[in-house]
Amino acid sequence: MSTVGKYRVRKKNLIGMRCIYHESCSMIKSKRLKALMGEHIPVYCDGDFQQCARVKLKVAGKIVPIMLLPDGKMIIISKKKTSVVNYSTD
Length: 90
Description:
The protein contains four helices and four strands. It has 90 residues and is an alpha+beta fold.
């Protein structure tokens, strides 16, 4: 058994399982942000969600930045362009 947040699940069942925070994730709720996530959804949200930077922060009881991508990079939107930069979750 493994614990993810308040959930106890069998470790072998975690891969390929939808993220337990999928319904409450601000990236998924926002159509604009969801569009920016692209390839992250099958990899993290519908795949190995334990590796998601957003899940790691939530489980640790930390604030999850709205623009944080599952791979730990941050989306920066300005009037001129949209950028993706590395973000430290430590």
